[in-house]
Amino acid sequence: MTKRTWRRVGYAAMAVSALSAAAFAAIFQDGIVRFLATPRTPFQTIEPPPAPDYAAPSAWLLRPNASAPRKAADVFYVHSTAFYRRKGWNAPIDDPNADHVRRVIAAPNEAGPFSAIADIWAPRYREATLFSQFTHKYDGLAARELAYSDVRRAFQQFVAERDPARPLILVGYGQGALHVQGLLRDQFQGEINPLRRRLVAAYAIGASVSAEFLDGLSPPMPVCGAAEMVRCLISYVDFEERFDEEMARVRDRTLVWRADGRLASSKGDALVCVNPLSWSADADYQPAEKNVGAASATGIAPGAAPAGIAKAVGARCDRGILLVDTPKRRILRRGDWFGAKWRVQPFNLFYHDIAQNAARRLAALEAILKVEPEPLEPISEAIDLGESPVNKVPH
Questions:
Q1: What pLDDT score was predicted for residue 15?
Q2: Does this model's pTM top 0.85?
Q3: Could you give the CA distance from residue 331 to residue 317 in angstroms, rounded to a whole number?
Q4: In this structure, what are the phi and psi dihedrals at residue 295, rounded to the nearest 5 degrees?
């Protein structure tokens, strides 16, 4: 064969090799991403990053400006997983790449819907890294428990600094939704609990919630089954139907906080799903006409409202998962290449639906608090006054 022929054969072989490599990567992309995200050292042998000091402003992703006028409520927001590297099981709070994701993508799309009515408090915390969500073994659970220890301390600082008379909204996405459940167990139990009395609602989105977990709280916390219910929980994990493997993983690998403060699998428990197009927990399909507005808030200035995309998706609850139509706008579709489906999404399909609903629930709670008597703490023990002289009243 001539040199030209050999050269063509070589180019053809290179093309075949490239196509084979691309096909291999496409087939095994999820496994490749998991491998690249897997920490190489056991949790017990790694020194965790330094713990945040929540008395310092640098430990907060968002917090209200002391000189700015106060809004009607306070939001305590816990962001979703933003650290995708395999360096350790927990992320440092000052990693520049993760912090960019938190500030530019996560906070605008996740906390943004509440910014019109509330002051946002959002801690940076030593989040469990991406691989933790794929395992229920010791390392992954311990990483999430360490992350929650930061969130709990941040919440205590938040409570110490805020006006206790103000309404409160809990918001968590992804990993943050799991930590919000921890706060409900730790901070919102008891018949007479001032935090629970002023709770507008808890929005735990992107991580499923066991109905049995809510029933086990004291008193049990109801699911928000109507648009104006308060002191209740909203939860959904949304996927298009093509993500069938992800839906199966969510149904089989939901975690709950036990009474001893540790995490455990809740496989087999009924999962909460509230449809944000109807704000009900039934399985009825709600058409796209009810979608007030999806939005991509990525990169917008804090407090700014993104343009809404009305009627973007219809949705229905199916065994604990919110099945959504495939959006016509590509910018609203969850990515499915090389772990994009597991990362912070640069949009919120129900941004303006949530904003409208949060305002409605806040108004409902404010109306209740105006007429509801303030409960008093019960007398813990009797007081022995001893002998007391009786003086007659003079005529």
A1: 44
A2: yes
A3: 23
A4: -160, 150
